[in-house]
Write a structure and sequence with these properties.
Layout: E1 3-7, H1 61-66, E2 70-74, H2 83-87, E3 93-96, H3 106-111, E4 117-120, H4 130-136, E5 139-142, H5 148-163, H6 166-174, H7 180-184, E6 194-198, H8 202-211, E7 217-221, H9 228-234, E8 236-238, H10 242-246, E9 251-254, H11 268-272, E10 278-282, H12 291-300, E11 303-308, H13 339-358, E12 367-370, E13 373-374, H14 376-381, H15 390-397
Parallel strand pairs: 1-2, 1-3, 3-4, 4-5, 6-7, 6-9, 7-8, 9-10, 10-11
Antiparallel strand pairs: 5-12, 12-13
Helix pairs in contact: 5-8
The structure holds NADPH dihydro-nicotinamide-adenine-dinucleotide phosphate.
Length: 407
């Protein structure tokens, strides 16, 4: 029988379960490319419930315990001697979410002698040292496509929020003012702007599709060209690299994985090549951007705004400069964890577990590492190497999580 160690974010400060705003969520059977949404044999929660936090347990407890497995759920992952570190040595399966990542570093792999499967309940397994997973023969799987559309909606929201100066204008209302000139002195229309995505996979393409009706000029760069019909349909301009794209865009959104090739791509040099006053939206991974270069560019006006929901580490310390830099519209890492998205990635996690325990193959599109090498979606998205360098970097922040008030 397996011990399953699951790391999830904390419950709401108001208690669990929350009072839900709605009674149901739309039923989605297929993603835009035809891939079916997760198909577990059973489900022990109602789609639309908060299952991504500790008490939600991804809806897995009944299923696992009925088969004799042990489930340990914790949010305590970064402190020295954290619950995660204490429970890891005899865990066979680790489940973690990018929103609250349990950094599976080489050092932790060395201690996790029984570990066989690491599941990302979501998309993006860069918090796992994939090279170490390959070396230790650990299978890594994620729930591909589960929250791609969720993220694309967040990207569109953030582009509009930045360009139209939404959040500062809202603040004037909250503060009791009616300062129209103060609100509009940085407010523009998106219409007619050049908007580009660096990375045009599931999320990037969904962003392009959603922005088309805004009558913007759309640009993209990617390792591979999109089908000609799609380029024509959306009137896309392809650029051979990020530098060529950023030179002509007013809004740039980043939608590619973090791996050694993309880490630190948006540094002073690349940002310096952008048009003055570009808006940058990054919901991919924080480390694709140089943290301090972003702050410098906002302070100098080279960037007119920066928004995103990805940070390093997660949670970021209270004094992380992205909390207080000018013209930001940051959120915690939430774009892919809407209640709608949770229903899919929790069901996908259950599907992966059912396959694992029954000895059935895990869907190829969910696999990142298998049998000592990159596999499935992982072979496509990642390059060998440690994308996180998490061991060293995360250690610098250990013990300084920036959670909610009073924590
Ligand atoms: P996809 O794999 O569908 O798309 C990523 C695209 O990026 C691919 O088309 C890939 O190219 C391209 N790419 C990779 N490396 C480069 C490079 N060096 N230069 C240009 N293009 C590159 O992934 P998704 O769209 O589903 O997700 C993208 C990322 O978004 C994820 O890796 C994850 O980090 C992040 N994410 C964030 C979430 C959140 O909650 N904020 C939730 C889900 C994902 P090709 O395949 O053609 O080689």
């Amino acid at each position: 029988m397996a011990k399953v160690l699951c790391v999830l974010y904390d419950d709401p400060v108001g208690g669990y379960p929350p009072k839900y705003a709605r009674d149901d969520i739309p039923k989605i059977d297929r993603y835009p490319d035809g891939q079916t949404t997760p198909t577990p044999k059973g489900l022990d929660f109602k789609p639309g419930e908060l299952v991504g936090c500790v008490s939600g347990e991804l809806g897995l407890r009944k299923f696992l315990e009925s088969q004799g497995h042990t489930l340990v759920v914790t949010s305590d992952k970064d402190r020295p001697d954290s619950t995660f570190d204490k429970e890891l040595p005899d865990a066979e399966i680790v489940i973690s979410q990018p929103f609250w990542p349990a950094y599976l570093t080489a050092e932790r792999f060395a201690k996790a002698k029984k570990l066989k499967l690491a599941i990302t309940a979501g998309i993006g397994s860069d918090h796992v040292d994939l090279q170490a997973a390959m070396n230790h023969g650990v299978t890594v799987a994620e729930v591909t496509y589960s929250n791609s559309i969720s993220v694309s909606e967040h990207v569109v929201m953030m582009i509009l929020a930045l360009v139209r100066n939404y959040l500062p204008s809202h603040q004037w209302v909250v503060d009791g003012g009616w300062n129209i000139a103060d609100c509009v002195e940085r407010s523009y229309d998106v219409e007619g702007m050049n908007v580009g995505t660096v990375g045009a996979g599931r999320i990037g393409t969904a962003v392009l599709r959603r922005l088309k009706p805004f009558d913007v000029k759309l640009h993209y760069t990617d390792r591979h060209r999109l089908p000609t019909e799609l380029e024509k349909e959306l009137d896309l301009t392809f650029h051979p690299d990020a530098e060529a794209l950023v030179k002509v865009c007013d809004v740039v959104t980043i939608n590619m994985p973090l791996h050694p090739e993309t880490e630190g791509l948006f540094d002073d040099a690349l940002i310096g090549k952008m048009k003055r006053g570009t808006y940058l939206v990054n919901t991919a991974r924080a480390k694709i951007c140089d943290r301090d270069a972003i702050v410098r560019a906002l302070e100098s006006g080279q960037l007119a705004g920066y928004a995103g929901d990805v940070w390093f580490p997660q949670p970021p310390p209270r004094d992380h400069p992205w909390r207080t830099m000018p013209h930001e519209a940051m959120t915690p890492h939430i774009s892919g964890s809407s209640l709608s998205a949770q229903a899919r990635y929790a069901a996908g996690t259950r599907e992966i577990l059912e396959c694992w325990f029954e000895g059935r193959p895990i869907r190829e599109e969910y696999l990142i590492v298998a049998e000592g090498k990159l596999a499935g979606a992982g072979a496509h998205a990642y390059t060998p190497g440690d994308a996180t360098r998490g061991a060293e970097d995360a250690a610098r922040f250990t013990g300084s999580p920036g959670q909610g008030p009073g924590k």
